[in-house]
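Q: Structure for this?
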Amino acid sequence: MKKHVLLAFLAVWFVGERLAAQEPADYVDPFIGTTNFGTCNPGAVCPNGMMSVVPFNVMGSDDNRYDKDARWWSTPYEYTNSYFTGFSHVNLSGVGCPELGSLLLMPTTGELDVDYHHYGSKYEKESASPGYYTISLTKYDILAEATATPRSGLVRFTFPEGKSNILLNLGEGLTNESGAYMRKVSETEVEGMKVLGTFCYNPQAVFPIYFVMKVNKVPQASGYWKKQRPMVGVEAEWDKDQGKYKLYTKYAKDIAGDDIGAWFAFDTEKGEQIEVAMGVSFVSIANARENLEKEQHGRHFETVREEARKRWNDDLGRILVEGGTEEQKTVFYTGLYHALIHPNLLQDVNGQYPQMEGDKILTSKGNRYTVFSLWDTYRNLHQLMTLVYPERQLDMVRSMVDMYREHGWLPKWELYGRETLTMEGDPSIPVIVDTWMKGLRDFDVDLAYEAMYKSATSPGKENLLRPDNDDYMNLGYVPLREQFDNSVSHALEYYIADYALAAFAEALGKKEDAKMFRERSLGYRHYYSEEYGTFRPILPDGSFYSPFDPSQGANFEPVPGFHEGSAWNYTFYVPHDVKGLARLMGGKKNFVRKLQMVFDKGLYDPANEPDIAYPYLFSYFKGEEWRTQKLVKELLAKHFTTKPDGLPGNEDTGTMSGWAVFSMMGFYPDCPGVPEYTLTLPAFDRVTIKLNPRYYGKEKLVIEVANPKAKGDYIKAIRLGGKKCGYRISHRDLISAGHLSFEKKP
Amino acid sequence: MKKHVLLAFLAVWFVGERLAAQEPADYVDPFIGTTNFGTCNPGAVCPNGMMSVVPFNVMGSDDNRYDKDARWWSTPYEYTNSYFTGFSHVNLSGVGCPELGSLLLMPTTGELDVDYHHYGSKYEKESASPGYYTISLTKYDILAEATATPRSGLVRFTFPEGKSNILLNLGEGLTNESGAYMRKVSETEVEGMKVLGTFCYNPQAVFPIYFVMKVNKVPQASGYWKKQRPMVGVEAEWDKDQGKYKLYTKYAKDIAGDDIGAWFAFDTEKGEQIEVAMGVSFVSIANARENLEKEQHGRHFETVREEARKRWNDDLGRILVEGGTEEQKTVFYTGLYHALIHPNLLQDVNGQYPQMEGDKILTSKGNRYTVFSLWDTYRNLHQLMTLVYPERQLDMVRSMVDMYREHGWLPKWELYGRETLTMEGDPSIPVIVDTWMKGLRDFDVDLAYEAMYKSATSPGKENLLRPDNDDYMNLGYVPLREQFDNSVSHALEYYIADYALAAFAEALGKKEDAKMFRERSLGYRHYYSEEYGTFRPILPDGSFYSPFDPSQGANFEPVPGFHEGSAWNYTFYVPHDVKGLARLMGGKKNFVRKLQMVFDKGLYDPANEPDIAYPYLFSYFKGEEWRTQKLVKELLAKHFTTKPDGLPGNEDTGTMSGWAVFSMMGFYPDCPGVPEYTLTLPAFDRVTIKLNPRYYGKEKLVIEVANPKAKGDYIKAIRLGGKKCGYRISHRDLISAGHLSFEKKP
């Protein structure tokens, strides 16, 4: 460890490590995606861990460029900000609404001041690697370091000589919910609960987090604080604390309120280190304590940090890339790192977790996952899990089916046991079908089908997932009934889901169902406007919506019929019937011309999900595959870099990175639910994926460029298991062959 | 019960009952002292019970004359107000600072509205008797009734047909502390905690109350509410609840915050009754539940009400009065009722209670009492307890000595385990000494003496009870070091305490101590100003404070040297050396002349403690005793009536009533710590006090007027046990004789 500390002090730690990099974790730069609204953060976290310990720098100072309370804001950390107000415990990465990011832990020195407008600090020497983050607080001369286990955090502060303080702020956080409860357990321990929720301004999506916090040194003094309600008149004169933060110096029993905290005061020697451990649970305080004790066992910071790093190396190491630049490796492994953050563990070490949309405490056999941003992740993230982490994907699918069992509906955007109903569609269907189609079938398939059938066929009024199902079932499309009801976007999602459901029904021998759902899936044709050559909203009377501008809707501008995008971002989103769409457009030529125009005219949005598979659609047409290869390479180079703004936009819980990871490996699952990939030239000379033999019957899958030294960006030939193949291959064939070889055009 | 309900509906219940009155409880009018700043309330309570269920009508409407948040305000109920916002559970009666009065329970009908500015109601048909209160809410046509056990409340609502709601508001209350925590236990039960404290603006005197609340009907729906923190900008646009009360309709786990509540919605039939039971504890939620279950056993409202009434009849019935008017009986029994509210039980049914100024949970063998407003109650309340309820007084003394054991100091103004340090002096000493002198000695006498000696002799800096003890010990008085430091008031209290302590030391054989303390107790002479004939503040250089106005300080006007009173209210307050004070003043004649002048010129304040024994001082001087008899009769008639303003001012937790009760019985303990009484003509023909034979060796004490039919207001002769006696008698002689007879001058 000495070497690391020394390097950190020399402020060359990061660069130094990079040069000596040997392990996958060394290629991860957690600062990528931490600005440009990427909403990633450089905090310490384990793969798919419940806990993350994240530097919180989005409140308390006008010096910050972005303030969580002054605008839309959904991440605890922003790279270009400068005022640190503590570590937040348990956070979301790559989401678009404010949530979690509370249990704020801050060190200070000198007189106790519990107002975050005052106690925050500027910083320097910021550095991060998987499972580790460090920062030097210039105002206090405090070195702060964070690491994590799956369900607990561990923070180490190195203090100067004198009065030092540790503050736990339960009043602030990214979440829009307020209210917390806490009690002192001993001189070195507090426990409590904080209310979280209201994700994406859904007022009922509320849930509690329970915590236990321990410091490893007995403080000189400790207590609470609470922001007092303002008073008027003589009461205001007499109560000197009214409207202010009141320090509780002699009260150590239960405390509760909107804005409370705990303080611990120490006399420290120069360089003295104090560690603060935080265990959390979404079930109970007792489980939070058990999580902390079972996962940390009182181990020291360095040990916990090494364990976290090992977890990352094990997981990232399932894919080995060779060739390519150092920067490409960094983009790749950081992408894989981002793809391994959500969904994350929900159950405690004893297996308990909160029932989906219910008040029961249940016990899970395998891992119970949470944070399913499925409108995003059904497109590629779960396909990546299925291929590289199949045991994990199976637990995710089981979690989804169990949510149906507990709540009566598959998830749409599940968050710690709450259905937030964010975005649209029925995205669990393609995820589960895709998984099943790829041979991962060890879940309750009948119940899964029952769940899918329910949402696909229940009347709209009682249909949580498809509220406009009456129109959809009756008309074959969803008409525009309110100006900004996103009706076309809804229907496009239903088509895709129903196509996957049809295939699933077919495979299960339910021919009638299969026929019905397959027919439904082609209803997209209703929306095609000959006049504009795009999809176009339909009014309740069956006529097209007018006036119509197919390019309206960029940059989150509201637009009738479409959600977060223009008609151009949606018109090619019929991945299950690309050829059919081409026929509708007048044939391949027109299709290719218009799709190319989307890119040429800047109508393509690399940061929003409906169009991210567009570059791969060219490869459905013989002779046009070069466009895929060209565009993917260009998009990777332009939007995925090693800089903090090195993501095209919101990471969407791994979906942006999922695109990059697949694309850099040379294949992409462009049609969710269909077990096929479209191929492009890999960014690396050789990619080795360690397969799980239990599921795939073999140890590895190798993708390589046969002539890596040849210059050229285009594919001449592809061989699967040594035999020539086309630009689209099935998952089964890929696994079966175990070897995919690209020959470049020199 | 039919008869009662019928009478209530005829709105003649109270009058009807009064005419048929046979029991002591029938003579209690809980509305006496509920205006004119008496700060009593008509709520349901058991004798010395922890629980009281009180109509809360001091917030939410401009129609109210007094609002808790708009001015100094210390009572949950004001007779002249008109807007009811629920029943507060656990309240203080007759105090001068806001505290407790939370856990507000309100019934409404129609659409749910949780804003107390809206949901309150005007009312009619208000009625109360010991252990019972009822009100009819005109806005909702709801009849609300309340009763109580010692540690639990029971409220019954009679609803009209339709949508009905029950609200538990944890955000408001009389206390200046905020913050609460709650969780749903079942469809019909919630449990939680509320932070209380900051009594008399002492920011650290904070303590929790735990509760369990049950409704006896399963609601159609239930949930929480919380006032949301205000937001700005787009957040404010997106969060429709910001700054408002948000209803939680789908969240039923832990909730916490400054301003939270629970709602229960019912469909009710016309006349349907729903009962709401509330158990409380100052130890834990589990104990709150046990208190509720052990004391109510699920019994119905009428049964609990009858039990409460029986408790009152048993306690009030320890004194039987005959003769006198119905109004005098009402004043007397209401006074006794008020004297039996505080101190009240602190321990739970399992014996557990919170350590004094500490975090331990301890177990009490006897009853542990709390709410010791000792600067008030040491003057007569504890003497009343000692005589009529000796077993209770002994538990109070044991509680006080245990507080020393737990905390290192005897109490001054103890409130639920916190020393609020309100008012001044060392009032535990006269209370304990007085009790011991009257033969109640079954407590840790050595520890009690140790405790008294500690506060009497510890240096000021480390002396919690006598912060100015350095001056006092060095100089024999306390000089004025700050303009409004109440220095003379402080010292006068120390003199009285030290006199009692001297007698105690003497009795315990500690002659040196006795001498020291007795000498100290005469230090009051320093303050006597020949020039003004009153006590006068002394400056640190030994000179008197100038300019000086002995009448300054009435009506709570701040005045140098004196606390809540003028020099005239304090100058005769040397009850342990009345004769010595008279000598200082130039003899009996001057003393009597000046004391009479205090009354004649309106300088006497019947509502503040330091001068309330003044009327009895005349009886120290032969031939002047008629003045006592005349003044006591006049003061009773003028200040103690059956009207809501029938107390002279703040009840001071039973001290005003203690004065009236003793005075109406014909004797008064004018020197706390000295086991003697001064006699005056009783208001009744015959008073029979049931004595506790265990302590007094006999069953009763009778005070009677030998010639009741004779007209006349003055005493001709007094006989104790048949033998003529003077105007001052000892406690021992009174008990020993068992019979005190007054002969009126016809």
